[in-house]
Amino acid sequence: MLASPTRLVIATRASRLALWQAEHVRDRLQSLYPGCEVVLLEMTTRGDQILDRSLSKVGGKGLFIKELETALLDGRADLAVHSLKDVPVDMQSPFLLSAILERDDPRDAFVSNDFASLTDLPAGSVVGTSSLRREAQIRQQFPQLVVQPLRGNLDTRLGKLDRGEYAAIILAAAGLRRLGLASRIRSFLEVEQSLPAAGQGALGIEILESRPEMHQWLAPLQHADTAACALAERAVSRVLGGSCQVPLAAFAQVQGDTIRIRALVGEPDGSRMLHAEVAGNVSHAEQLGEGAAQQLLDQGAQAILAKLLSAGTDA
Ligand SMILES: NCc1[nH]cc(CCC(=O)O)c1CC(=O)O
C-alpha cells in the first residue's frame, strides 16, 4: 500500500480566484490526509502581468500556466491547480492532467447594475466580454447590442462595470460563486443561449507524469462524470486546433451511461453559427467529442477558425 503524503506543495497563480481554487484543493487534500502538511506556492504568471493587450497578441497558449509548470519541474511544487478552461488541450509529456474535480455551475452569467438580462438592454448598450465565444453568441441573438473587450481579473472587470464603462458584462458563474460574488449575478445565460467553453466551471490538477504516487494520492479528488465531460469537450477543442482564442464552445453532460455533447463554432460578428450535437456511451467520451468536432468541420468550421488564429482573446 502506498504511504500517505507528508508534505504537498500546490503551485497557484496569486489571483483571488486562483487562490480560492488552490485553497479548495488544499482543504480537500488536508481532510483526505490529516497528517500531511499542504502549503501553497503563489506565483505571478506572464498572463497576469500583461493587462493592456489582447492575450492572443502576446502569444502562446498557456500564458497562465508556464511558470507553474516550471515550479513542478524544479521540484518547488508537487501539483498545480488550474481552472480547467485555461488549461491548453494539448498538454504533453512530462506533464499530466491528473485529476478533474466536480464541476460547479458551467453557465455564463449576466452581470449589470441597471438591467436584469440581455433581453432588457436597450439597443446600442455596451456589453463587456473578451471571449469570442460569448461575443459570437450574443451578437447572433442580440445584433442591436455592442460588444466590447473586457480584460483583467474578476475584481478588475467588475470595477470597470461599476465605473459605468459597460451596461453589462458576461462572466463565468463559477468564478463569481467561488469569490462570494454570486449576488452580482442578475441572471444566467442558459446553455442553449450561451454554450459554455470546454472545461468551464471545473478544476484540473496538473502533475509530472514521473510522479505516479502523486497521481494515486489525487485519485480520490477525481469526479468521474466531470472527467468524462472534460475528455469530450477538450477533444472537440483539440480537433479544431483549439486554444481559448477562437469562437468555439463545447459542453457535455452525463446522464446515467449516456454523454451528450453540444458544440459550436461561430463568426465573432454572429453572422454565421455552426452547431453540432452527439450522444453515446460515456465510455466513448473522447471519440464522441472528436465526432462533434468532425460535424463542425464538415459544415466548414475550418474557414471560420483559420482567419481567427491570428486574433482573439479569452475563453
Ligand atoms: N477566462 C478566465 C477564467 N478562467 C476561469 C474563469 C472562471 C471559472 C471557470 O470557468 O471555471 C474565468 C473567468 C471568466 O471566464 O469569467
Automatic annotation (TrEMBL):
NCBIfam families the record matches: hemC
Broadest EC class assigned to this enzyme: transferase
SUPFAM superfamilies, per database record: Periplasmic binding protein-like II, Porphobilinogen deaminase (hydroxymethylbilane synthase), C-terminal domain
Protein family according to the UniProt entry: Belongs to the HMBS family.
Segments forming domain Porphobilinogen deaminase C-terminal: 228-297
UniProt-recorded Gene Ontology molecular function terms: hydroxymethylbilane synthase activity
HAMAP family named among the record's database cross-references: Porphobil_deam
Quaternary assembly: Monomer.
Cofactor: binding details: Binds 1 dipyrromethane group covalently.
Protein name: Porphobilinogen deaminase
Catalysis performed (reactions): 4 porphobilinogen + H2O = hydroxymethylbilane + 4 NH4(+)
GO CC term (a single one): cytoplasm
Function: Tetrapolymerization of the monopyrrole PBG into the hydroxymethylbilane pre-uroporphyrinogen in several discrete steps.
Single biological process term from Gene Ontology: protoporphyrinogen IX biosynthetic process
Cofactor list: dipyrromethane
General remark: The porphobilinogen subunits are added to the dipyrromethane group.
Keywords annotated in UniProt: Porphyrin biosynthesis, Transferase
Enzyme Commission number(s) of this protein: 2.5.1.61
Pathway the protein contributes to: Porphyrin-containing compound metabolism; protoporphyrin-IX biosynthesis; coproporphyrinogen-III from 5-aminolevulinate: step 2/4
PROSITE patterns: PORPHOBILINOGEN_DEAM
Modified residue annotations for S-(dipyrrolylmethanemethyl)cysteine: C244
InterPro entries documented for this protein: HemC, Porphobilin_deaminase_cofac_BS, Porphobilin_deaminase_N, Porphobilinogen_deaminase_C, Porphobilinogen_deaminase_C_sf
